[in-house]
Amino acid sequence: MPISRGHANYALAVLTVTYVFNFIDRQLLAILVEPVKAEFGVSDTAMGLLYGFAFALFYATLAIPIAALADRSVRRNILAIAAGTWSLMTVLCGFAATFWQLLFVRIGVAVGEAGGVPPSQSMVNDYYAPEHRATAMAIFSSATFIGSLLALVGGAYIAQSFGWRMAFVVVGAPGLLLALLIRFTIKEPQRGAWDAVHKSAPVDTNMWQTMQQMWRLPAMRYTILGCSFAAMAGYGLGYWTPSFLIRVYGMSLVQAGMIVGVVATSAGLIGSLFGGWLCDRLSRRDKKWRVWVPALSLLVSLPLMSLFLVWPEQHVFQLGQFVLPVSVLIYAVAAFVGSWWAAPTYVAVQALVAPGQRTLACAVLLLFMNLLGFGLGPVLVGIISDALLPFFGKSAIRYGLLAGMVTYLLGMAFYYAAGRVYEAQLYENRTR
Homologous superfamily of 5-187+207-430 in CATH? Predict the structure, then answer.
């Protein structure tokens, strides 16, 4: 029997709050780039590696065996252990005495967070019927925007008032309490309780064979690659935009945190919920919209985000006493549209596999999305910025961000290709 709707909603709330702190701990470094870089005397490339590849390598690869374990055991318990681990490691980031110590502890954060998202997404899918999953996943995915908002705004204020080290301590500590809340107050949902095929469909318990079966599906391959290339540009923008505003626009740490945190993440949160609603509505008639909504998101947001990066900073919008750079308004619209792709992608991938394989499917998606997107996106922007620094000075970061956005084109192409074969390869179609 499925868990009651009331408890499902409560569990979704707890999982979403946990994911909020997961993302705060991950994103906090984005607003602390300038003070951390200044204290340790390192380059943009080194800061890109600290935030991106060093974190993503462990986060993505460890998510695979943890997800395979979660598909055979109690997901709630794994999530509770993971939350406690990443929260403790975040607190320890505040005590790093050297760049290399900070790098080592950030790897510890990645190890903990590897057990966070796949079990959570698998549980959300088992709490809700298929026709409500995209909306539920959009609510869960909204944590990335809420977490970014709190990390950027709260982190900026704490760092400016008490130093960047205290910011890590303050945002890490609450996760230790959340770990206990997960373990003792939410119920483990029955796998596939809402899916008609779950009782009779065999599930391959061999992790590597299961991954090979997933990869052999063109719809799975194309969706994962589409998401990965979209994430390359997205993570590059998310990490370096505060530095862009500080260097090019001359904003303070708090001002940059407010612009990216309040404007972009609020617009992104609304856009994520809208994208989930739009996907649920369109996919009732045609399931391929689960991957074509993300393609549409990239198609519209690419020119808007590019316009934000090149718009003259002196152009302002004034309404009475309210003054805001025009580029920031463009940024808000781009963030709204650019956030449609995440929730539909998670739903699309998990619909291609059996209920007992959903955690692993999510981990495979995150493996590619984080190695290519989270791992390479910020590093690519940092490398280009360092290379162009002698020619463009502080504006080099602008051209690094513009160059990194080219990967949106590849993401669009793969999402479109996935839509061409998606409906025929859905798991329920293959088990009739």
Answer: MFS general substrate transporter like domains (1.20.1250.20)
